[in-house]
Amino acid sequence: MAVALAVAVPPPALAAIDRQVVRPSDTDGTISAGIEPYIVYSVRGDAPGPLLVFIPGTGGETPKTAKTEQAFIGTALAHGYRVIVLSYIDTPAIAQVCTKRVLANDPACAEQVRQKRAFGDDTTARINDAPQDAIVHRLTALIRYLAAHDAGDHWEQYLAGTRLNWRAIVLSGQSQGGGMAAYIAKRIAIGGVIDFSGGWDMRSDDDIASWYSTPSATPPERWYGTYHVDEKFASAIAASYRAMGIPASHQFPLSKPVRHPEGKNPGHGEGASNPVYRGIWETMLTGLARH
What we know:
Elements: E1 17-22, H1 24-27, E2 38-43, E3 51-55, H2 62-68, H3 70-78, E4 82-85, H4 94-97, H5 100-105, H6 109-119, H7 135-149, E5 159-160, E6 163-164, E7 169-174, H8 176-187, E8 192-196, E9 223-228, H9 234-243, E10 251-254, H10 270-273, H11 278-289
Helix pairs in contact: 3-11
């Protein structure tokens, strides 16, 4: 289905961007794993807009992610978003935990791992993440920290009391991180989802995980997803987007030439990093800003 792309807006000048690096342990002294720094961006002098939280993929390392995805981050800033690149325990990957042998006896493995890694619930012993390691806890602690230490920047708008004001927050991510964004949005009504090749959780050799087709707290018009047609698991990702009910006009199968065709999974990282897709980024970002 043809989609009208937004008119390109140049990213803000680097001098106008405030960039903070925050250690997870500064926001919660009990966090001792997954200690890559949080990286926080805002445009100096702008009124605070929606918050885009980018969740890296497996082994993503937030400084590396911030560099690789800098064009997407700059585009979000140009459209009035604040941006956080959030670290978490991103290894082992879901597919490394929920192997074919495991799935034969535990087809819900992927959902159990995501529930623990996202929300901190004790749903599985297959990963060692502690409750304070969970993505939602980390983000909450970071926003509270920013609200307390940068009072003039009004980070409190992303809180509702002591909890997150989810309607002001858009979750995005690459690979495992995109899947985490989607998993959280299934369970909590958030401002929106931008899922870049968000994983391929399975319940068997041939079937995607059941959680993809469960009811969603976040309505379908607030979902977007991309994947490259040349990546290894494109068909499974496309099936997951259909199962999650992402509107066809909000799904973007990418097909521009891959920059590193010699890679292990060519095309897998293109959606969030290749500036040739800036028009699609703008369509997704502006679409969510309207809701």
